Automatic annotation (TrEMBL):
Pfam families in the cross-refs: BATS, Radical_SAM
Requisite cofactors: [4Fe-4S] cluster
GO molecular function: 2-iminoacetate synthase activity; 4 iron, 4 sulfur cluster binding; iron ion binding
PANTHER family: 2-IMINOACETATE SYNTHASE (PTHR43583)
Reactions listed under catalytic activity: L-tyrosine + S-adenosyl-L-methionine + NADPH = 2-iminoacetate + 4-methylphenol + 5'-deoxyadenosine + L-methionine + NADP(+)
Protein name: 2-iminoacetate synthase
Domain Radical SAM core span(s) in chain numbering: 71-301
Keyword annotations of the record: 4Fe-4S, Iron, Iron-sulfur, Lyase, Metal-binding, NADP, S-adenosyl-L-methionine, Thiamine biosynthesis
Cited function: Catalyzes the radical-mediated cleavage of tyrosine to 2-iminoacetate and 4-cresol.
Pathway assigned to this chain's UniProt record: Cofactor biosynthesis; thiamine diphosphate biosynthesis
Length: 375
């Protein structure tokens, strides 16, 4: 059975870097006038040459976003269930080598978190854990997902990669989507940053979206951790290659792209390649031009001022008031967090900032009476 690994093996990192960096202003202008972007067009829009074309890129990205999504921006919030982790990763606050207090929420604590989140108005929930298959695996998910599902209109997860059968089972429990980030598509760099645990298996993680597609999960989220490799441009291009592969093979699935930049955390590292805010805008706009129908998401990793400027251009999915530690909404303990969010505004403040720019915050876009495969 074919997977993205086949396409990945055809792609040469150094060759892609050379091709991106050799693009000219003529290549960028050609891409800006293309009705449908080719891979070469995307390389041009991710290239250094495109930095001088940020304004026309942003204008076209905004136009495509409004055409596809209107003025709506969906809101979601992460619920961290556990910071236990059996992996040792150089960049993550949950890494097993970090001496931090560990916490896994029980049924009562989950109920308190859900109540606190519902009180803020959220209906779209992202469940997040460290990667610990033994203590926070399928048994834990089977025990707690049904109760959480009843409280929210949409349920997504960002946990350790699972098998196709496990994803299919979670779908019957109410799971709508899964976010799984490759971190970096450069195999040697991946090995340097994943020192122990099952996350060392580069290809098992790489093929996770294929298993999700075969399991019939409604939405798959992709992304690279920007700054982990020595070329954010190539990593972002590889995300696009992954997206194109999945769209071709699992066309009934919806897709989401995120743009996480390295943030400070316990035991953290310095980025190997720096992406400034203009370059992040360039990348977001390039993805909108490539895939007008795909959800583009921007989290609280970014500053309030930056988010307020960029969301109206091409973003249609945002988090707000995120707590990156288990129990953070009912009883805030920052020492347990995975990373330090940058935008700490309450959800109503984020919504007001978007409304002031003519956008419409959407807290709920689905209801169980509409039907769901798991019901």
């Amino acid at each position: 059975m074919s997977t993205f690994t086949e396409r990945w093996r055809e792609l040469n990192w150094d060759d892609i870097a050379l091709r991106i960096n050799s693009k000219t202003t003529a290549d960028v202008e050609r891409a800006l006038h293309a009705r449908q972007l080719t891979r070469e067009d995307l390389m041009a829009l991710l290239s250094p040459a495109a930095s001088a074309y940020l304004e026309p890129m942003a204008q076209r990205a905004q136009r495509l976003t409004r055409q596809r999504f209107g003025n709506t921006v969906s809101f979601y919030v992460p619920l961290y269930l556990s910071n236990l982790c059996a992996n040792d990763c150089t960049y993550c606050g949950f890494s097993m080598s970090n001496r931090i207090k560990r916490k896994t929420l029980d049924e009562e604590e989950i109920a308190r978190e859900c109540a606190a989140i519902r009180e803020m108005g959220f209906e779209h929930l992202l469940l997040v854990t460290g990667e610990h298959q033994g203590k926070v695996g399928m048994d834990y998910f089977r025990q707690h997902l049904p109760a959480i599902r009843r409280e929210f209109a949409s349920l997504q997860m960002e946990v350790q990669p699972l098998s196709q059968d496990e994803y299919a089972e979670l779908k019957t429990l109410g799971l709508d989507g899964v976010m799984v980030y490759q971190e970096t598509y450069h195999e040697a760099t991946y090995a340097r940053h994943h020192l122990k645990g099952k996350k060392q298996d580069f290809f098992f993680r790489l093929e996770t979206p294929d298993r999700l597609g075969r399991a019939g999960i409604d939405k798959i989220g992709l992304g690279a951790l920007i700054g982990l490799s020595d070329s954010w441009r190539v990593d972002c291009y590889m995300v696009a290659e992954h997206l194109l592969w999945l769209q071709q093979h699992y066309w009934q699935t919806r897709y989401s792209i995120s743009f996480p930049r390295l943030r400070p955390c316990a035991g953290g590292i310095e980025p190997a390649s720096l992406m400034d805010e203009r370059q992040l805008v360039q990348t977001i706009c390039a993805f909108r031009l490539l895939a007008p129908e795909v959800e583009l998401s921007l989290s609280t990793r970014e500053s309030p001022a930056f988010r307020d400027r960029v969301i109206p251009l091409a973003i249609n999915n945002v988090s707000a008031f995120s707590k990156t530690q288990p129990g953070g909404y009912a009883d805030d303990h920052p020492e347990l967090e995975q990373f330090a969010p940058h935008d700490g505004r309450r959800p109503e403040a984020v919504a007001a900032a978007l409304t002031a720019q003519g956008l419409q915050p959407v807290w709920k876009d689905w209801d169980s009476w509409l039907g769901r495969a798991s019901q």
